[in-house]
TrEMBL record, chain A:
Biological process according to GO: peptide transport; transmembrane transport
Family membership: Belongs to the ABC transporter superfamily.
Record's protein name: ABC transporter ATP-binding protein
SMART domains reported for this sequence: AAA
GO molecular function: ATP binding; ATP hydrolysis activity
Stretches assigned to the ABC transporter domain: 9-246
UniProtKB/TrEMBL annotation, chain B:
A Pfam family annotated for this UniProt entry: oligo_HPY
Domain of life: Bacteria
UniProt keyword RNA-binding present: no
Keyword list, A-Z: ATP-binding, Cell membrane, Membrane, Nucleotide-binding, Transport
Protein name: ABC transporter ATP-binding protein
Amino acid sequence: MTLLDIDGVHVEHKPRGRAPVRAVAGVDLSVAPGQIVGLVGESGCGKSSLARVAAGLTAPSAGEVRYAGRPVTPLGWRRRTADQVGLQMVFQNPYASLNPRRAVGEQLLDGVPAEVTGAARSARLNELLERVGMPAAAASRYPHQFSGGQRQRLAIARALAPQPRVIIADEPVTALDASSQAQVVNLLVGLVRELGMGMLFISHDLALVHEIADVTAVMYLGKIVETAPTRQLWAQPHHPYTRALIDAVPRISTEPVLPATLAGEVPDPANAPAGCRFAPRCPHAFDRCATEPPTVAIGPSAGVACWLHQPAPQTARL
Amino acid sequence: MGALLDIDRLAVALPGPRGPLPILHDVSLTVGEGELVGIAGESGCGKSMTAQTLLGLLPPGAKVTGSARFDGTELLTLDRKGWQKVRGAGIAMVFQDPTAALHPMLTVGRQLTEHMRVHLGVDRKAARRRAVDLLDQVRIPDPERALEAYPHQFSGGMRQRVAIASALAAQPRLLIADEPTTALDVTVQAGILALLDRLRRDTGLAVAFITHDLGVLSALTARSYVFYAGRVVESGPTGQLLTKPEHPYTAALLGARPHGGQTGVALTPIPGSPPAPGELPPGCAFSPRCAHVRDECRTAVPPLHPAGPGRAAACVIRPELEVAA
């Protein structure tokens, strides 16, 4: 059973006076309880546009997002149904996502259902703070009194307030230092493992996704080009783009070894190449790449969208 | 002839509400001609403050002691005129955020040629030719057209390459790169690292590369310094330093980064957070967070001790450190 289903989602941005930009061009992805799905890709590939649609913050231009079987509809917060608050989001920048003028405790309590009252309410607050490793005294303080890592932990506590079943984390540790990064990542992983939540973990840091995700999806220019169990994806990347991303990660070794470079730039999504979108930068591109490759299965729960991995059309029919 | 850059027992204190706030303590560091040197550490450890000292960009009222010699010239006593000679043509800098480093309302061409004409004394035409060359060197497609473009018309990675071209415009001998790839994607980062390495080989450019990413440090630099709370805590050849660290802080930084182990417990965080300037604990500044701490750590600040050829570490107990591969 999956909890969050992203089904054929397209997102179009329509800048005034310019051609529409298709940020997400048909993405299928699902998250099961207790599962961490990593979504990686370069900036501008549509990761954040997809995250916002998945959390119901904006409407997709086509396709559907379902949470617990019911469609997620981007409504004003007053009208969000009680069962949909089980879908929560953590943003990249904890400086911007917490209100600087309200005490931390107040902000955390916003998410606690109104039925919980009196002593139970303050008990819930303490529980939330304890879960993210903050002292109960933090409730009466303001966001500026905390460091970046602590603020991100408070933002996570706030997302946890309505007891969500799925968390969408969009670059949650990118703004943080190495040591607080590790603290926040361990907190998120712990939540998934202990509370059985599902998590969509979006990051451009491949090494980090490798470390924590059960399944990794690789996105390029609005499309998922490869999905596989994380270990398999790293051991045996099938898509040339996945390989290029993995090879570009600098590694620690006894002698300096420069990471491999990938030629070219990510094209403007407003005029994406016809056919395979990676073809202009792909070292293996050939004639057939001018038409768009379908995603083919490469084992259970893994798929790749690349003509290199297609069975030849004639032999396939035998 | 010594090193191109020779910093000796540099200390910097900034004015604070309750008297001077010491930021850097006893920092000694060298960068040789054509050498790629790494400077690593968490934010607030003094990496960027060191860079600012070398460019005379410290805020007014800063107290500086020690010495920083660039190509034989003492930087710390330079006047305004002297700094103008060193900046750009001697030492140039690339910042983390290229958007802030480039003027949004001037074309790239104007920004590139301006300091060439000041520092190199070349005419408009020659400057333009050199600007095209520079953009070509940093692999900007169609450099002629790029000269007429404004910074916002480039992507983040291209903008950083333009910023590097602009830093190189006056043919500096030392480039200080302060987290130049932190905001960029790995693929773009790989391109910039390759570019810096090529410039070092082709033109003998020396680079001081400031980063908190130990992978980048290892991929690019030959020698490194690890900073903690305004002090150098370990230095040595980068490969050895990162595979066989001598200081517990270096080992802790290595443990906190993802290493692809899929061990169940993802990462090993360093407990607590770095001390704020002016609130340093007695003795070793890392002792409150150190897993190997002993009583003697809290009595005096440990000096940098030699620890093998070309290496030094500021730790009195020198525990056996294990590093996950």
